[in-house]
Amino acid sequence: MRIFRFIRGPIETDELRRELADPSCGGYAAFEGWVRNHNEGSRVRGLEYEAYEALGLREGERILDEAVERFGVTRVACVHRLGELEVGDLAVWVGVSAPHRDEAFRACRYVIDEVKHRLPIWKKEHYVSGESGWVNCERCAAAPVGASHEHAEGHAHTR
Amino acid sequence: MSAQSAGRTDPAPAVYGLVLSGGRSTRMQRDKAILTYDGRSQLERAMALLTPLVARAYVSVRAEQQNEPLRARFAQIIDAPGHVGPIAGLLAAQARHPEVAWLVLACDLPLLDAATLTCLLRARDPARVATAYRSSHDGLPEPLCAIYEPRSGAALAAYVASGNDCPRRFLRASDIELLDQPEPHALDNVNTPEEYGAVMAAMRSPASTDLRRLTVQYYAVLREQAGRREESLTTAARTPRELYAELRSRYPFSLAPETLRVAVNTEFRDWSTPLADGDRVVFIPPVAGG
User: Fold this and answer.
1) CB-CB: which of A50, A147, A158 is closest to B219?
2) Which residue of B has its CA nearest to A117?
3) ipTM rounded to 2 decimals
4) What is the number of CB-based contacts under 8 A between chain A and chain B?
5) SS (H, E, C) B146-165
6) pLDDT, tens digit, 9 for 90 and up, residues B93-151
7) For residue B289, what is the nearest residue in chain A, using CA coordinates?
8) Is 0.90 topped by the overall pTM?
């Protein structure tokens, strides 16, 4: 079973956890990414996510398929928030169930890493100073030609 | 305006259409209204686009043009005496029907499409003096594809009485609703034989089959810099690489193509993917999920 979703309201983790229960599974791992109150020296007041949803759903499902194929896990789910979030809000949730703990941990890590690098989703941070900026985009604009954003490390949280 | 809401709020005034055909076409040296594209005159084309969208449609003419055979086929409003140019047509129309809003249209817009008119009507704000598009060339209001509300009548009369006759300047000084064009070239007009020749060549030549109509969607920082979420455009760009270069000349995109990815029809694609008519293209700024 694979669930990939974007959601505009709060993520109901209890419900998602129940969806992952399976009698053949002895291990369950979950990851929660939260909105942090600072990033790269700036105090963060809140943020907003915007996604290219049609492509994001396809890419998200591909990531989950890869996790199942690589690690042989049984069930995997990922839900990502869109819209405006406040400090402390749950921004992204990943859950995996598997016969044993090792593949559950590894698949969970794989999904969140791939989601961060591949999903067409953008984060605009609003700072306490009153300024705001698109994470990874403002610096790219100034970066020399050939600089790759794939190695940028400007994530506000989940690190 | 629904019957239910009519009891609580005043319904917006009806919209009548006015196609301006009284221009003297001095630069073209031929009557622009009867120039044909695809076998149809500009005036017929403009009336065909406008008529289904408004309660009534008229052609604005100078007195001496009334019996010209093409213009004689349509309901006419004759220019107010003593005025010249587009403003003469609008004044005459407002004098005839001061109670309605007038969608005024130049007749020399060969690239005008129905979407541009329906978007204008949909976004119309009857509480303002007028609703108009922002020119994709200079950012100023386009006065000759715009809706003038009844409330504009008194202000326009005063503007003209003080010796002015430029409708664009009138809009710049008024409280108007200003929109982005859904198709940036739809209001490009044709004033000279050279421009006419260029449009005819683009429509006819084998190269015109090499033009394609694309939809581009913008997200995040690109959406903010383009000032829109989506647009459809006709372009000679053959690949996403050429398309992004073209768009960069129009919008202040700060991101170099090296920092972006491309999607065509909801799949990641290469920058050199051939683009086809009807394709939907998205440029993907550096992502930041999680």
Assistant:
1) A50
2) B287
3) 0.86
4) 98
5) EEECCCHHHHHHHHHHCCCC
6) 999 999 999 999 998 888 888 889 999 999 999 999 999 999 888 889 999 999 999 99
7) A116
8) no
